[in-house]
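Appendix C reproduces, verbatim, an entry submitted by the partner laboratory led by Prof. M.T., so that reviewers can inspect both the input and the predicted structure.
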Amino acid sequence: MAFGGNLGDSLFVNGIAASPFLPQQFGYADFVPSQSYYALASTVGCFNGQPQGNANAAIFQCLVGKDTETLQNASAYISGSSRFGTWAFLPVTDGSFIQQLPSQQLLTKRINGKRILSGNNANEGPLFVPNDIVTEEDFINFLRNTFPLFTDDDISRVLLYYPSPNASDSMDMAKFATSGTTGASALNESTFASGQQQRAFNVYAETTFICPSYWLAEAFTNNGRSAYKYQYSVIPAQHGVDVPAFLGPALPNQGPDFTKAFMTIWGNFITNNDPSIPADLAAGANSVSSSNSSDAVSTDPLPNQPSAASQWPPFTLAAPYQLNLNQSGGVPFSAAPYPGITNLVNVTQFANPGLRNDFSLVNAYTWEGGRGMRCDFWRSVGGIVP
């Protein structure tokens, strides 16, 4: 996106975006980033809150003169005073380096590079959302706090795109991973939460990580470009836990067959411009037979194929398929999703022996109760997210 996508492939040809982070992005001189800037300056003694001639130049020179530790501590303090799940200092639209909101610029396909491997995790939201959303009123308050520019009509549209019974949550509500294609969806259900809490988790996940991965894939669908899309779904699949699977060392719930396949997907994309991997590698050593591999495509609307990962089609608007990277089998164990973070409940995970790769091609647009449609909605209101 840099410089309006006018750099072509002068800097890179292939890009990989794993859970691409798209927070709210204001104009560089808007109230929100300006407020954070002056708050930082005040915290380190560079701004007294009084109007003065040529104040900005003096403030900046004062900040330049501060030591790194002082600035780091002040930045952490200011961000800690922000809304839950947000940071005070984020990318801004400056009109030159970053010329538009990503949701808008990616729609026009004004991008650099030729190919993208774009992915997201199944549960991107729990770490960033208050874990006290029980009623629909709590959910609406969360929306108002997260999107302060939304009107009552905008809130009503969110409720329409994220339907749920208006009953309050109960501690006894079941929590389980969804299939993505049938039954309960991420709208109301996950291994982390059900009902209103999951509703909030999913809103944050889709606006901040998941829809950006869709928009990136869509942006690389013509003009000699290509995109490949995936979702990391190994339970519990929260934000960040995919990294050990493709960089190592693996977590207990990531079997050696899975990590070898995932690493090879990344490697093949880098070296061959195509993330497809051999069918036997996708199936893994624990597969009973290649013909019985759970890696076979089994989700509509594609017919059965011998291996989803070995015949991975590029993502297109007419055929918006992604590879769902999951496992089956294994021995259950309970553990905290993020060691040291106590506001999230322990979740049931699975470890060897018995883990088997479970890869399938799925329609990313109809996935999880119509995720593509919801991402289109978020793009349409990008100007007031912003």
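The first strand starts at residue 14 and ends at 18. Additional entries are available on request from the coordinating office.
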